[in-house]
């Protein structure tokens, strides 16, 4: 791999990688069982540089911002490289947000350029606020011939001949603005520097190296910090290959493991659990004697891999299981949301290590990761190289808020000095997560101090972001809170949002009001929906500017009501 | 209402009916408990991955191909029927 210490920016590292590994395959893109694209590093460069030149001619300059709004695919990475080549700042946007939310974040980020897939662009052009779009140049990928692009240009035609000038950036310059949340209330644009990414990449590849021939299956959205690092920067600076699937149908994901002999993949707990269900069902279908033999082999594998994984031993003992995953899978990375230890142990016993980690967008990709020496499903691993972690104000059990200091911690929140000051205190990033270290230096998480949830799909949901959906609810007042914020648990999981309802005098919670709540809840995407409600008998505590004092409200509720008082919606 | 509009409505209704039948069979839920405007995540008690499974079953049944993005933001049977009908 490249020696990243020598580089001052991502663009320079990627530029050298494209030359050093020119003959290696860097990208494969498949739609279902049809392979659409296969590019070498040299092919990648040939497509990206004419795009960079066209951007340069369009007066896209160093420090200008360009947003990418696409599902995982080759054009995402090609566009990102062209943006870095020009010295630009990348703004990766979450394609699962609504078109109105996309417009909001485009405005907040002040992106000059937008690179967007046709179906997402069509949705944006149909929003009532489309005329307020702030991007000056829009490049639309995969638009049907003759489609009205509402002022945008076809990405495929946006290229110029002639070598573009490479624009060098410094380590402290901004590389990306990544939104960790925030559309409804307060957008949280994490400003991450080239140093943040280069150091994160060094740390990750020190523990989980990539090399030419390694194939990484990119399933998590590339706009997410994890896939951006392990599905783009990490593999590219090591000459490895990234496989993109245009569908996430479980059957095609399973096929891709086999067809492309995948080495690494990152998955959210929901998908890992789905794979577990499928495997368990297959094992249960086996005749009794076969199941008994398999269980003995699994027990033997568990014993032999007690101290660390032995991929060859596991593949020899359990060839059928490993063939189903392509036979070359070394690890599944997971993090971001709660993963049941029993699920991780199930896979580890089969010889498929699930490397659980912990991180947040504000701190790059991962702060801790399981190094598998030995495998510890009950923890989120040890601090990555170069990461300092400490537990603030620990209680009797050693549990307190986790704070971190590292070269991977963001510079600040975009245009929000107040929030930055609250979050980064004397160089330490306050994570809002509660944890403690065990004797072996592994971090164990015990819940959140902050009012938010992380879904099984790895999405951060902040109540403030969805509260406006309940506008007009015919009650005196209402407030959305994370249930675990009100009733702290000493473990992760069971994460759900609740709506607290303060009714008018003499008002009753009847079926009409229930329908009003449900109607609004249905407007939210399924992963953002509120899971239950409680009726609260007092007025909400508020600040002088009439903002709800959420922490105080949560504390009052927990003193009066048990969690069981929450009625499911 | 014009003849064409009526015909369109009846074919969409038929598509909807077939979807409800298929969902009931696939997820072992009594057919009479499923309604056009139901939130299928809630009624069927399924997550987004299981929804993709249902989508595959529907594709095979109707012999069409629906990109994943067509399902983004769709959570009720009626809207799903409209998406499928548009590709028949």
Care to describe what's here?
The complex is a heterodimer of chains A (569) and B (88). Chain A is of the alpha/beta class and 569 residues long. Chain A folds into 3 domains: 256 residues, Rossmann fold (3-Layer(aba) Sandwich), CATH 3.40.50.980; 182 residues, ANL, N-terminal domain (Rossmann fold), CATH 3.40.50; 107 residues, GMP Synthetase, Chain A, domain 3 (2-Layer Sandwich), CATH 3.30.300. Chain A contains 18 helices and 28 strands. In chain A, the strands form 6 sheets. A 9-stranded mixed beta sheet of chain A has the order 2-1-11-10-12-13-14-15-16, sandwiched between helices. In chain A, helix 1 packs across helix 2 and helix 2 crosses helix 3. Chain A starts with 9 loop residues before the first helix and ends with a strand. Chain B is mostly helical. Chain B has a single domain, classed as Non-ribosomal Peptide Synthetase Peptidyl Carrier Protein, Chain A, CATH 1.10.1200. Chain B has 4 helices and no strands. In chain B, helix 1 packs across helix 4. The longest helix of chain B has 24 residues. Chain B is globular and about 40 Å long. The mean pLDDT of chain B is 83.
Structural category of chain B is: mainly alpha
The rough form of chain B would be described as: globular
CATH class annotation of the largest domain in chain A: Alpha Beta
CA-atom Rg of chain B in angstroms:
13 Å
- The top level CATH class name of chain B: Mainly Alpha
Number of domains of chain A: 3
Biggest beta-sheet profile of chain A: 9 strands, mixed
Number of strands of chain B: 0
**CA distance, first residue to last residue of chain B:** 23 Å
Mean pLDDT across residues of chain B:
83
The count of strands of chain A amounts to 28
User: What is the name of the CATH topology of the largest domain in chain A?
Assistant: Rossmann fold
Question: Which architecture of the largest domain in chain A does the CATH hierarchy give at level 2?
Answer: 3-Layer(aba) Sandwich
Main sheet overview of chain B: none
* Biggest chain pair interface: A-B, 21 and 18 residues
Strand content range of chain B: under 5%
The coarse silhouette of chain A is globular
């Amino acid at each position: 791999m490249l020696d990243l210490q020598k580089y001052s920016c991502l663009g320079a590292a990627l530029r050298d990688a494209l030359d050093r590994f020119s003959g290696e395959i860097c990208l494969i893109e498949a739609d279902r069982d049809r392979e659409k694209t296969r590019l070498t590093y040299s092919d990648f460069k040939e497509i990206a540089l004419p795009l960079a030149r066209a951007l340069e001619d369009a007066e896209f300059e160093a420090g200008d911002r360009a947003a990418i709004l696409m599902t995982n695919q080759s054009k995402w990475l090609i566009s990102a490289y062209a943006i870095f080549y020009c010295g630009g700042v990348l703004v990766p946007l979450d394609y699962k947000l609504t078109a109105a939310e996309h417009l909001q974040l485009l405005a907040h980020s002040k992106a000059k350029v937008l690179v967007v897939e046709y179906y997402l662009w069509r949705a944006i052009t149909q929003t009532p606020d489309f005329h307020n779009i702030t991007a000056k140049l829009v490049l639309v990928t995969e638009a049907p011939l003759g489609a009205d692009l509402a002022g945008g240009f076809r990405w495929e035609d946006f290229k110029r001949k002639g070598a573009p000038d490479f624009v060098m950036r410094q380590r402290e310059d901004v590389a990306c603005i990544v939104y960790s949340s925030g559309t409804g209330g307060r957008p949280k644009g994490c400003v991450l520097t080239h140093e943040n990414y280069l150091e994160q990449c060094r740390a990750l590849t020190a523990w989980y190296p990539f090399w030419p021939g390694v194939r990484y299956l990119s399933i998590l959205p590339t706009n997410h910090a994890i896939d951006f690092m392990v599905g783009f920067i990490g593999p590219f600076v090591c000459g490895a290959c990234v496989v993109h699937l245009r569908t996430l149908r479980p059957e095609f994901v399973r096929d891709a493991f086999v067809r492309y002999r995948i080495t690494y993949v990152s998955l959210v707990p929901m998908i890992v659990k789905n794979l577990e269900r499928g495997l368990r069902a297959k094992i249960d279908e086996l005749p009794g004697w076969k199941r008994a033999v398999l269980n003995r082999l699994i027990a033997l594998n568990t014993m032999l891999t007690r101290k660390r994984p032995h991929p060859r031993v596991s593949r020899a003992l359990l060839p059928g299981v490993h063939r189903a995953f392509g036979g070359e899978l070394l690890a599944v990375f997971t993090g971001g949301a709660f993963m049941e230890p029993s699920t991780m142990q199930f896979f580890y016993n089969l010889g498929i290590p699930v490397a659980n980690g912990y991180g947040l967008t504000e701190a790059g990709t991962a702060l801790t990761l399981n190094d598998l020496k030995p495998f510890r499903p009950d923890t989120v691993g040890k601090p990555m190289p170069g990461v300092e972690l400490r537990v603030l104000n620990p209680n009797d059990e050693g549990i307190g808020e986790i704070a971190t200091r590292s070269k991977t911690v963001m510079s600040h929140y975009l245009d929000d000095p107040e929030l930055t000051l609250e979050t980064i205190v004397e160089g330490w990033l306050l994570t809002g997560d509660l944890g403690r270290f065990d004797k072996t230096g592994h971090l164990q998480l015990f819940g959140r101090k902050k009012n938010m949830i992380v879904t099984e799909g790895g999405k951060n949901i902040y109540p403030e972001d969805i509260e406006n959906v309940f506008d007009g609810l015919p009650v005196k007042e209402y407030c959305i809170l994370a249930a675990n914020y009100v009733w702290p648990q000493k473990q992760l999981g069971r994460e759900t949002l609740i709506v607290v309802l303060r009714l008018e005098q003499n008002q009753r919670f009847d079926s009409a009001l229930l329908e009003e709540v449900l109607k609004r809840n249905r407007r939210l995407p399924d992963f953002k929906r509120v899971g239950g409600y409680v009726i609260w008998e007092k007025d909400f505590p508020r600040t002088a500017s009439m903002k709800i004092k959420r922490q105080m409200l949560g504390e009052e509720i927990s003193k009066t009501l048990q969690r069981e008082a929450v009625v499911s919606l | 209402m014009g003849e064409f509009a009526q015909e369109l409505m009846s074919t969409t209704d038929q598509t909807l009916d077939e979807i409800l039948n298929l969902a009931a069979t696939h997820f072992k839920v009594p057919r009479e408990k499923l309604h056009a405007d139901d939130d299928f995540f809630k009624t069927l008690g399924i997550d987004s991955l299981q929804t993709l499974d249902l989508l595959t079953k529907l594709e095979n049944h109707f012999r069409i191909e629906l990109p994943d993005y067509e399902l983004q933001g769709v959570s009720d049977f009626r809207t799903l029927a409209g998406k499928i009908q548009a590709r028949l």
